[in-house]
Design goal:
Layout: E1 4-13, E2 16-25, E3 30-34, H1 41-48, E4 56-61, E5 64-65, H2 70-74, E6 77-81, H3 92-99, H4 108-117, H5 131-143, E7 149-153, H6 161-176, E8 180-185, H7 188-194, E9 197-202, E10 205-211, H8 212-219, H9 226-235
Parallel strand pairs: 3-8, 3-9, 6-7, 7-8
Antiparallel strand pairs: 1-2, 1-4, 4-5, 9-10
Helix pairs in contact: 4-5
GO molecular function: ATP binding; ATP hydrolysis activity
Pfam families: ABC_tran
Keywords: ATP-binding, Nucleotide-binding, Transport
Length: about 240
Amino acid sequence: MSIIEVCDIVKKYPSFELKNASFGIEGGEITGFIGRNGAGKTTTIKTMLNLIHLDGGKVSYFGKNLTDNEVEIKKRIGYSTGTLSWYPRKKIKDIAGAIKPFYESWDEESYRKYLNMFGLDEMKMPVELSEGMKVKFNLLIALSHRAEVLILDEPTSGLDPFSRNELLDVFEELKKQGVAVFFSTHIISDIEKCADTIVYISKGNIVAALSKNDFVKSYSKKGESLEDTILRMESEGGATYA
C-alpha cells in the first residue's frame, strides 16, 4: 500500500475542474508533480490536505482516511509553499517557539541542523529574508517535527539555480531517511534531476503517474529529453495521452 493514496478526487469550480485524479505516493521516494501554471497542481495539493472541500473521491495516509483522522495524520506530515505565510515581523526563533508545542515529535536537534544547513539566522524576521531564504524557512518548520511525508507546493519557486540545486540535494538526503517527498513544480529540470516518480497533470486531468523511467519509455520519442517530451505533450493537448 502506498503511504498516500489519492483516489478519484473531484473538485469543481465555475471555470476549472479537477477530474477523478488518482495516484499513489511511496515512502522513501521523491515524486515530482509537474504541470503548467493553472493545470491544477495547487488545487490537488489543497485537496490532499483537506484545505478545500472535495466534490468526490477520497485521500488516505498510512492506510487511514484523511477526513476521519485529520489531526493524527497532520502531525506526521509537513507542508510548505513557495510563498511565506508566517508572521512577517516576528523573529524566526519566536515563530518556531510558538509552533513546536503543537508537535510531540518536534526535534530540536533537527531544527538546529536545518537552521545551520539553510544558513538561517533565527534572530531575523521573515520580512528581512530574501525570497529564497523564505522558502528555506518554510522548509525548516516542516522538517523540524520529523515529518514522514513532505508535501511541497512549488518549493523551488523564486530560488536561484544554486539554491534550487541545494534544496534538491536536501530532498535526496530525506529520501535516504525514508521520507516521502512530493513536490509540485513547472520547472522540468528539477524533476529530471531528482524525481523517482512523475505525476503529470494537464487541464485538471492526471495524464500519467509513473516511475520516471516508465514515463520516458511510455511517452518520449527517440532523442527527446524529458523537457522535450512534456513540452510536446502540452502542445498536443496533454490530456489526450493515456
